[in-house]
Amino acid sequence: MFSSLFSTAPPVDPTAPNFRSVSSNVPENEIFGELEPKDTEWACAGGFVAETQTFYITTEDGVNIMCQVIHSSVGIWYPTIQFTCKIANPAKGERIWKSINVTNFVTPPPGYDKRSSKADEYSILYKSNPDSEFPESYTIRANLGVDLQVSLELQRPASIPGWKVGKGPKGGYSYFGTDTNNAEGYVIHRFWPSLQASGHLIHNGKADPVKGVGMFVHAIQGMRPDLVASAWNFAFFQSDQLGGVSAIQMEFTTIDAYGKRGAGSGGVVVNVGSLVIGNKLATVTTETKWPGEEPTGSVISRALHLKPESDPDTSYGKPTEIVFEWKGPSIVAGAPGTVEGKVQTDLGTVSEPKGLIEKVDFLAEIPYVIKMAVNYVAGTKPYIYQWINPAKLSLTGPDTLSPGLSSGIEVEGYLYNEATFIS
């Protein structure tokens, strides 16, 4: 008994792997993990955890709408909950931006499960309608001030299930630290890759109808944001051609403290994505690129910045072009084969940008308590670039998925994408 008081944990090899990617130990034929009800429930965990529900919508005329709830915990302090809404109409050069701290947050609200939440300023309510054309939906109602109210219905088609990488309750997790059972931190992503959106926005007393296609992601960062990643990329492409096409991708690059050979071996790039073709979830992709190594698997899921140009506003190398690529096995019954997609978009120069919605000062937007707790190196300026542009997605795959697909088809649509630089 007394000796145990003075015992110490065995030393950890400083060159031991201290990061496990979501794609680790997941066979290529088991990448797709269909969502279970608990996967998108609010966790509201303690410690240093940032949890989000985010809905992205692209309307038929190219307007981008983003609605997000952020639940931020910092140690023993009471969590901060924000509702954020951004509406961008590139054709008119208009942008509406609202971010408010909400009061009396609760999950679950009476009569609903923990996939729903509400506060004095908003409600996001999950509904299940099994065996229907749209078996799941969310309804968003938000009063964000006298100048902006939101009313949206977001329905998931039965043919497009929600997904995570890997099956079971731990599907979707990447772990930081040498022990996954007692991890230093983690990142989780779970998606609805495509949904039908309808409703209206009221801005300055004028009601504008909303009709389009969207996506939903439930994400959790169980670690300080500056320790999770040095950079992020995100893409959401949608088109109504071929009966409905959607392509999404989420990528982060770890800081160098986490890698295959311990501290200093990081800069690990982790990417997850999916392709919807013909209103069916065609493939789910994931890829991990370890520093100094080339990926060896047959599945591709990656974002590439091309021709970066120094931006004096942010001090970062802003890409003037960006490429997103997908390649994975078909998961559609009766359509075996490989499905591939690629979109490349001109983002313009620093002085003449194309489709740039905004350069977001990350420190200005995160909750105050997190800003105070995150000890950024003096002089760093984390920024998020956001764009929406007309784009063309090149697709190939089995003809049983879509006629002529084996020869390659190019579909036209809109690409919303983000590039985040943290350090």
From TrEMBL:
<protein>
    <recommendedName>
        <fullName>Survival factor 1</fullName>
    </recommendedName>
</protein>
<keyword id="KW-0963">Cytoplasm</keyword>
<dbReference type="InterPro" id="IPR013931">
    <property type="entry name" value="Svf1-like_N"/>
</dbReference>
<dbReference type="Pfam" id="PF17187">
    <property type="entry name" value="Svf1_C"/>
</dbReference>
<dbReference type="GO" id="GO:0006979">
    <property type="term" value="P:response to oxidative stress"/>
</dbReference>
<dbReference type="InterPro" id="IPR033394">
    <property type="entry name" value="Svf1-like_C"/>
</dbReference>
<feature type="domain" description="Svf1-like N-terminal">
    <location>
        <begin position="51"/>
        <end position="221"/>
    </location>
</feature>
<comment type="similarity">
    <text>Belongs to the SVF1 family.</text>
</comment>
<dbReference type="Pfam" id="PF08622">
    <property type="entry name" value="Svf1"/>
</dbReference>
<feature type="domain" description="Svf1-like C-terminal">
    <location>
        <begin position="223"/>
        <end position="423"/>
    </location>
</feature>
<dbReference type="GO" id="GO:0005737">
    <property type="term" value="C:cytoplasm"/>
</dbReference>
<dbReference type="InterPro" id="IPR051385">
    <property type="entry name" value="Ceramide-binding_SVF1"/>
</dbReference>
